[in-house]
Amino acid sequence: MTVTHNCVLPNALRIPALTKLANKRIVLASASPRRLQILRQFGLDPEIVPSKFAEDLPHDEFSNVYEYPVATATEKAVEVYVRMVEENPDDPPSLVIAADTVVLTKIASAGSNIHDSLLPEVRPDILEKPQDKGDNLRMLLELNGYAIKSMDDRCIVHFHDSHISILEAYVDSEEGMDRAGGFALQERGAHLVSRVEGDFYNAVGFPGSAFFKWIGVLINEEDDFMDFDI
């Protein structure tokens, strides 16, 4: 029995990237409502199959910190793809989308075109989700008055030099407990941020514009990209 899939929304722009994804089984390997919301805003409504990958790759095994989130996202996508193929080999996903967001406590030059000449050659510390309120406050104190990067499509988030009472109030809200770096830029965490250089959606959790541009590049470079029967 042939299963029909179409994750492209009716109001999506008629661009090559979305046209190519029409009638394909597209899966988001994440339970993040923020990533799903961003993809829907760009016209794609994928299936949700959260990855079971433990996300426990050792930070110190990566000489380049920018490789860490790429490796984690790759493991997420592979885990979901393999699991779905094993569960239903007759209806495998055409594309599995995975992402990993981390926050760096220092700005490092690593190929970004944002003020590279001003970025010191230091290894940033990686901040993921805080373990508890104390860890959340520690992260915010490290970021306070700082500029940070997200990657691999990268942007710089500039923080106010906020009073400790503001940081403590934010920690008590518990909003940042499940967010990389311990803050939610698109919600009350905006109190802590002065400005963003680069893709706002990337800082929120998924670089939608860069993703669809990348799909377009693959279409141009590979004539048979995703031209297969499932």
Beta content: 5-15%
Q: pLDDT average, as an integer?
A: 81
The count of DSSP E runs of length 2 or more, i.e. the number of strands, is 8
What is the global morphology?
Answer: globular
| CATH-level-2 architecture of the largest domain | Alpha-Beta Complex
* Total helical segments: 7
Give the strand line-up of the largest sheet.
2-1-3
Q: In angstroms, what is the radius of gyration?
A: 19 Å
Helical fraction equals: 25-40%
Low-confidence stretches: 108-120, 146-151
**Total of domains:** 2
Secondary-structure element pattern, one letter each: HEHEHEEEHEEHEHH
The largest sheet, given as strand count, sense and whether it forms a barrel, is: 3 strands, parallel
Could you say what the CATH topology of the largest domain is called? Maf protein
Q: Helix- and strand-based class? A: alpha/beta
How does this model look, in words?
Mean pLDDT is 81; it is low at 108-120 and 146-151. This protein has helices at residues 16-21, 33-41, 67-87, 133-143, 164-173, 200-204, 208-221; strands spanning 26-28, 47-48, 95-97, 103-104, 126-127, 147-150, 155-159, 193-197. By secondary structure, the protein is of the alpha/beta class. The protein has two domains: 1-105 and 127-153 and 211-225, Maf protein, CATH 3.90.950; 155-198, no CATH class. The strands form three sheets. Strands 2-1-3 form a three-stranded parallel beta sheet, with helices on one face.
From the structure above, extract its key features.
230 residues; three-stranded parallel sheet; methyltransferase; transferase; three-stranded antiparallel sheet; single chain; ITPase-like_fam; 8 strands; Maf-like; 2 domains; Maf protein; globular; 7 helices; N-acetylserotonin O-methyltransferase-like protein Short=ASMTL; alpha/beta
